[in-house]
Amino acid sequence: MSSLKIKSIYQNLIILTLIIHFLGLQAQIENLQISKEVTVDKLYAGLLSNTNLNYTSKNESSSSSFQFGARVKLKLIPQLITIRSFGVFKSLEGQQPKVFKNFEAIITPNKSIAIHFGVMATPTTELRPHPTTSQSQIETNAEKTILGGKPGIKFNYLLGENYTLSYGIHNHNNHIGQHFKLKYKHLVVSSFFERNKIFLVGKWNFKKGNILITHSRNNLAFSTLIPITSKYSFYLDSEYNTYQDKQKHLEFGVRRLFPQHNRIKGFLSIRYNTLLNNVQASLFIHI
């Protein structure tokens, strides 16, 4: 491993350690009341370090990433209009730093209806991990097939205690995309239509795990995280092109979760990519 790579890993680790030390709060940090009108409802920092061994080339490599973000809510008119925004910074070794952001106004005329305007998560994007959570930093290939936030307007309607219906119209790079989403308890299905393109996604969340399926044209992607015990989870991520009859992505592995701690969470993991013939061991810690 080069001295520059080692330096980058240690820099990211020092930053995360300092954040944990000064905040001294439970993971994930949520609902920090700044004032009567302003709340930091999500605050996140995480470090991911990967070591790779390729059995075909016999080469080894390593990488690290650091991600930090926060989401803030401002009650402009209590019970009626809220301004919500988040900003996320991600530094991935060997690449230019990335920034994710949104800004939206939310109008809630009653408890059942919410109208969103701005640059935000579409109803379909909401099935992808939020950028200010740990799941975003380690999202699967299947989750990455879901598009990111877009400008537009969306409507959320609470049909009953367990049902939520969403509809959104968003700008997809100068093309109109129409989004639909239905949520029932922990099961969510969504789709969008853009010109001649149809995208479908379904997700089932359960305790410490989930199953996600996406379909777009000829691509079918699937990922799952299933708890084996209180300390171990099984991971599977795949993508298949039905037209070419070709596997585009396939990897599986095991995560060893850290014990519950009042400041940090994370895991050690090892997984195997069958197409690249690559074994990757990872360390992930976050607040």
Structure characterization notes:
The protein has 287 residues and is mostly beta strands. Helices cover 10% and strands 60% of the residues. It is built from three helices and 17 strands. The protein has helices at residues 3-23, 134-137, 141-144; strands at 32-33, 38-54, 60-77, 81-92, 98-110, 113-120, 150-158, 163-171, 176-184, 187-194, 197-206, 209-216, 219-227, 232-241, 246-257, 265-273, 278-286. The chain has a 16-stranded antiparallel barrel. It is globular and about 60 Å long. The two termini are 27 Å apart.
DSSP E strands, number? 17
- Outline the biggest β-sheet: 16 strands, antiparallel, barrel
Helix content: 10-25%
Instruction: Report the sheet-strand fraction.
Output: over 45%
